[in-house]
Write a structure and sequence with these properties.
The chain is mainly β. The protein has 1 helix and 3 strands. A 3-stranded antiparallel beta sheet has the order 2-1-3. β1 and β2 form a beta hairpin. The protein starts with 18 loop residues before the first strand and ends in an 11-residue tail after the last strand.
Length: about 80
């Protein structure tokens, strides 16, 4: 997964902003982080889930990811 955003991301944010939970396969075993708990919203530094997403596979391989969905537009104007 990359941290880039494309032209179709306006209004929805970059992909990593919509990640709710992630499961990684690490050398030590499986690691699951995230979820919608009050403890996941903190001002005490970066979220660990963001560090894992940005590690580009050096800390583990993402095997499962839960994303927040947004309702698509009902009309398009070009």
């Amino acid at each position: 997964m990359t941290r880039s955003s494309g032209q179709a991301s306006s209004g929805y944010g970059r992909l990593e902003q919509n990640v709710v939970a992630v499961t990684l396969a690490t050398p030590e075993g499986e690691l699951t982080l995230g979820g919608r708990t009050p403890s996941s919203a903190t001002a005490a530094g970066p979220k660990l889930i963001d560090v894992l997403i940005g590690s580009e596979g050096t800390l583990g391989v993402i095997t499962e990811m839960t994303l927040q969905l947004h309702e698509g537009p009902t009309e398009f104007a070009y």
